[in-house]
Specification:
Length: 452
């Protein structure tokens, strides 16, 4: 094996991770208080209390996809989009990888805006009024916290995420326990059942699009540090339930809060709205908790974004990569906070549309692993030799088919798909369709090729 081939795999000495570490990485990344908004959104589909809880559970269980794709990283010691070269080829992998990078950087920018607003709210509690200078300082402080936390290696990352799990996970639980008694239980129990097809399924699709499918692009980036001898069951369950537990609990509280804070899901600044439902003595602790819940998500997004940049063969020094991403993390929030009034809404819609491409990619990647790589492994030439593996047309065709179908059944401010009507209007079902179509077509193409 030459130097070029070995460079895509972690050395055996660095692969000493345990499934317990994956639990803390994904638990900390899902303790954000904004999960409450997801719960309120679920109720907005006119569902009953029981249906809303089932939708929250089904949406949070979409992290099983991340858990399963993590096995590929455990098997090889390679990151997600490096492994993706097997299914798409080197050149065919460029577009999905670039979309993955955009997705990670985009949601990172959204979280930085939220973190900046939260930090401003915290300053206001101490009597410091918001102004442009304080806004810029809050943005720089929050960005600096993320950058400093992200430059450490895997061992330090595990310790940081473990710290956030215990400290801010506990604080988040305390906040939730204070919010629960404000529930209007008679109103909650009197909510009538919604339609399972036009209400329940679209609600689940929105949660899946923003959780399991969105995070699948980073699955192997952290499991690649696992010992290859770790059991598949342990890796799968630790990743899946590490994310499921906080997601389901926080979304369930959002379901309860929908009765006491009916405008929560539509609020431009839900962090501020939630603070108003808390007793005054809890405000400072709440804002600190909200910041602590945002930072782990940002750390994971930034680390995986830097990995994706390398996979695109954009090789720069670590310091240069940090500077590039730091500039993006600052410029987009500055434009959002000082220039545009509606940029963030359109930007989040754009990121949601990227989810269609990511869903089609995840399906193709998953079927490639199930049908071939799980048993045969990853040929080193597929991942490290661009001349040997320029394009896998079966994977590319499957991905494109899913993307096209997904867009045809999706409507947005940018365009309306011709079939985005009825059950498919104003929701993320196009994401699930993209996933299903790409998975089915790639399965058929691989099956036909194996028979041949």
């Amino acid at each position: 094996m030459n130097t070029q081939e070995s460079s895509v795999f972690l050395p055996a000495a660095e692969r000493n991770g345990t499934p317990k570490e994956l639990f803390f990485i994904w638990f900390a990344s899902n303790i954000g208080i904004l999960g409450v908004v997801y719960g309120a959104m679920i109720v907005g589909f006119q569902l009953s209390f029981l249906q809303s809880l089932l939708a929250a559970a089904a949406g949070a269980l979409s992290f099983a996809l991340v858990g399963y794709l993590s096995l590929a990283g455990r098997d090889t010691g390679a990151t997600t989009f490096v492994l993706s070269r097997a299914a798409f080829g080197f050149k065919g992998n460029y577009i999905p990888t670039f979309m993955g990078w955009l997705n990670l950087v985009g949601w990172l920018a959204v979280n930085v805006v939220t973190g900046t607003l939260t930090l401003l709210a915290l300053f206001n509690v101490f009597g410091v009024s918001s102004n442009q200078f304080l806004t810029v300082m809050s943005l720089l402080i929050f960005t600096a916290l993320i950058i400093v936390s992200s430059v450490f290696g895997q061992d330090a990352l595990v310790k940081i995420q473990t710290f956030f799990t215990y400290v801010f996970g506990g604080l988040t639980l305390l906040v939730l326990l204070i919010l629960i008694p404000k529930t209007n239980w008679p109103e909650l129990m009197n909510m009538s059942n919604g339609d399972w097809l036009t209400g329940f399924l679209p609600a689940v699709s929105i949660i899946i699009a923003g959780t399991g499918i969105s995070w699948s692009i980073a699955a192997a980036d952290y499991s690649c540090y696992q010992k290859p001898t770790q059991s598949s069951r342990s890796v799968f369950t630790r990743v899946t339930f590490g994310a499921f537990i906080p997601l389901f609990v926080i979304m369930s509280v959002g379901v309860l809060m929908s009765t006491s804070v009916p405008d929560l899901a539509a609020s431009a600044n839900p962090i501020e709205v939630i603070s108003q439902a808390l007793p005054r003595w809890m405000t400072i602790l709440y804002f600190v908790t909200a910041l602590g819940g945002l930072i782990p998500q940002c750390i994971i997004s930034l680390k995986s974004a830097r990995v994706n940049l390398e996979t695109l063969n954009i090789r720069v020094k670590d310091s240069t990569s940090v500077i590039i991403h730091a500039i993006i993390m600052i410029l987009i929030p500055i434009y959002t906070l000082f220039v545009s009034e509606n940029f963030m809404g359109n930007f989040q819609t754009f990121l949601g549309l990227l989810g269609i491409g990511m869903a089609a990619w995840a399906a193709t990647f998953m079927i490639d692993y199930v049908k071939i790589r799980k048993a045969a492994g990853y040929d080193q030439r597929l991942l490290a030799d661009p001349d040997y593996n320029q394009a896998n047309y079966r994977g590319i065709i499957s991905w494109l088919a899913g993307v096209i179908v997904g867009f045809m059944f999706t409507n947005s401010p940018f365009f309306d798909g011709p079939f985005a009507r009825g059950i498919f209007q104003d929701n993320s079902l196009g994401v699930l369709l993209a996933f299903a179509v790409s998975a089915l077509i790639y399965f058929i193409l691989l099956s036909a090729n194996s028979r041949k």
